[in-house]
Amino acid sequence: MVPSRRFGRTGLAMPVLSLGGMRFQQSWKDLEAGAIEESSQVNLRRLLEKAIGAGLHHIETARHYGSSERQLAPLLQDLPDPRRILQSKVPPNPDPAAFEAELATSFSRLGLDPGRDRLDLLSIHGVNTAELLEQSLRPNGCLAVAQRWREEGRIGAIGFSTHAPLPVILEAIDSDSFDYLNLHWYYIQQQNQAAIEAATAHDMGVFVISPTDKGGHLHTPSQRLCELCAPLHPIVFNDLFCLSAPGIHTISVGASRPEDLDLHLQAVALLPRAGELLPPILERLDAARRSALGEDWLGSRHQGLPRWEDTPGEINLPVLLWLHELLEAFDLEGFCRARYGLLGHGGHWFPGANADALDGEVPEAALQAVLGGSPWAEQIPGLLRRLRERIGGQAVRRLQET
């Protein structure tokens, strides 16, 4: 049975594995009830039955996860779970009335009666920029709407989910307006460590989102990564890495079928042995990075890099050089190809552009002009060209837009 942890000041007993609702839905479009296919519901029923049996009592979805909420509604009634924690997410809006209408739609899709039922957790979804945070926190803004619903007994704890730069996340935490947060943090991406520490200081629940997909497409790992993580599957390694870290309460399992739970359950079973299993794998992974990239690069690669907003063509150099590292050290080509393709097409979820404009719209001289503070200024254009040759050439849309 999956163990639970106190989810910060919400006081909820949160299972260390949460069932994410992004990947089990039939469609990214908000389908009418009559368009939901029986086979899709049978699959979801089997998934929920397995999750309940294993102790995954937390179900997390969102207003814009296509048919997810609508598909869940009848099965939540058919498969009762006295320990269930239900969460949905609604994006901020400059018009609080529009935010409230979306919240009401989320209740309706989930089959909740606003006069009788309560949503245990509500996240303001995608607080990814300072502007979206301001829309949430301003007087009579989105947070005020959520707080009113909470006072009326219609929702429980209020949090936020984010892909934001660290300063925006820290500002949201320091506002002390939220009970918990959903954020990215896993082996290949630990930039939000300070946010976890700040959330712990505020006694907030910490929910790591998408560790399998955004953690390196670990459902289809490279042979190189499998060798480095042996004897563990990379999913098992990453789950243990996340759940062993101080301050983290739960991680999302983005399952599309019942079998997708198996490796995550294996990780939970091995959690008492994490102190024994993780160190040799971490040593091999670190050695692979040093061998592929060199100590000089690893010690100075971030120095003097301009923000994507200040780079010609809005080329997102920090992200692109991170992808370069993942390719060279771990051969994560599928993941890197997808992330490269999202740049320029992902809006505030994946901001900035890839390197396709280099040597065209963006001459090398223009790029060099903003790299004066980097010890790698001479090498970076060549790195970008090699990255483009290996993984460029295909635009990718966010899943919600497909």
Spans of at least 5 consecutive residues whose pLDDT stays below 50 are 396-402
Strand content: 5-15%
Structural class: alpha/beta
Order of helices and strands: EEEHEHEHEHHEHEHEHHEHHHHHHH
Instruction: Write out the strand line-up for the largest beta sheet, numbering strands in chain order.
Output: 3-4-5-6-7-8-9-10
Shape: globular
Number of helices: 16
Number of strands: 10
Question: Which percent range fits the helix content?
Answer: 40-55%
Biggest sheet descriptor: 8 strands, parallel, barrel
Distance between the termini: 36 Å
Instruction: Report mean pLDDT, rounded to a whole number.
Output: 93
Radius of gyration: 21 Å
Describe, in plain words, how this protein is organized in 3D.
Helices cover 43% and strands 11% of the residues. With 402 residues, it is α/β, with parallel strands linked by helices. The protein is globular. It is built from 16 helices and ten strands. An eight-stranded parallel beta barrel has the order 3-4-5-6-7-8-9-10, surrounded by five helices. Strands 1-2 form a two-stranded antiparallel sheet.
Summarize the helices and strands and which ones pair or pack.
Blueprint: E1 4-6, E2 13-15, E3 17-20, H1 38-54, E4 58-60, H2 68-78, E5 85-90, H3 96-109, E6 119-124, H4 130-137, H5 142-151, E7 155-161, H6 166-174, E8 180-183, H7 193-201, E9 205-208, H8 223-229, H9 234-243, E10 250-253, H10 262-270, H11 274-293, H12 295-300, H13 317-330, H14 333-342, H15 364-369, H16 380-391
Parallel strand pairs: 3-4, 3-10, 4-5, 5-6, 6-7, 7-8, 8-9, 9-10
Antiparallel strand pairs: 1-2
Helix pairs in contact: 6-7, 9-10, 11-13, 13-14, 13-16
